[in-house]
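Hey, can you fold this one?
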Amino acid sequence: MKVAVGVDAGTQSLKVLAYAVDTNSVLARTSCPLSLLPSTVTGRAEQDPHSWVQALSHCLSELNLPSSAIVTAIAVSGQQHGLVALDSSGSVIRPAKLWCDVESAPEASEISTVLGYTLPAGFTCTKFLWLARHEPESFEKLHTLLLPHDYLNFVLSGVYAMECGDASGVGTMDLKNRVFDKTRCEKVHPKLFQSLPSLVPPDKPIGAVTAEAASTFNLPKGALVAPGGGDNMMSALGAGAVRPGVLVLSLGTSATLFGYSETPLEDASGTVAPFCDSTGAYLPLLCVQNCTSAVNEIAHGYGMSHDALMELAEKEPAGCEGLTYLPYLTGERTPNWPDASGALLGLRPGLFRPGLVYRAALEGATFSVLHGYKVMQSFGFEATELRVVGGGSKNTLWRRIIADAFQVQLKFPLEPESAALGAALQAAAIAEGQPVAEYVRSHEPPMSDVIVIPDASVAQQYASAFERFSSRGKTLFG
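Sure. Predicted structure:
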């Protein structure tokens, strides 16, 4: 039995999924928690890369595959943007600075001015410049910069490499030519370009599992190590978003919206991140900072369950009688309003009803994503279908609001670990010698039978509510 292994090394946990190539089915899953290193420094978010290695070893030891299983390939999905600094011997110099580490905000502002396009503090090149300025001894030792999933690839194969999807989150790529732009790199820092490893194509292995890694991880020596990719790129594969018009909407603490594009979408405002995907095409991506967290605040504030509030909210009208909830409880990155706060506007007597406020929160979180989608549309990037994942996707009222506000049908992937599944599909494709996009199209990830069709009769109500949302947000924070 041929098995492809997919790994998803996230911020909070590392997950492993075993995929049976011959039956196109998931055999087993395991996971292991991860945590940030404790810190009292504002904006710091770091992890020890060795903890990822330990978690991967633990998960693989717990995978419990049948005796007939033969692992032919492995691929790693990883949290994007993190900076892993290695010395000339391949040893980790210091903890990895993660995507959510914003200590480099001043450097991000400076680099954005120099390069002529907006880079948030999450992007890797801003962390590289931060390290040069704030930890010169560590920076002096730095020989190679890797991203989190690249580091696990290195541990598995002994090869330094990046693929274009995750690498486009460094912030200095020439997307059209799929290479690092040497001039941009040198504008960030003279040492950046030489510290980056080679870029590899999406459909070829970067190497094979070494004897040392085979012993550490209980994997067959010589099993292929696929390029892997950033978690969003792998989620796109795991949700089957490998054709134009199919977008993935992930509703978690934050929300992301992304999908396949045959051409790069380069938005100088920074609203839409101009990523490559993991098939040789592109993956325009939007990220909003406040999503389920903003909705959870209402449930907590009223002391009621989501089910109870949803039952009440279903009886309230679209547009919430003019009530607008701006969900920017922790500031916002899209729009770039880091100092914004949450706000409940349009209150009149009788409008503090729990169901109405809860519905306003669902609409506000939806409109926050819709605002970014309107920017995508201005570049000709249109959705014909949204595949919705994440914890928020289980809320049936929220599903209805999204379909009606976007006026796009919704589908729901059955596999909860879409990034790990995407990694496994990439590994399987490479082991079978097939292009990744072609393989995923012919091995479509399973979908729920539920499809939510938009109701055209309420489109105008949502359009008016969205305009009110946008206007009030800009008045307060724009």
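The two ends are 57 Å apart (CA to CA). Let me know if you want another pass with a different chain boundary.
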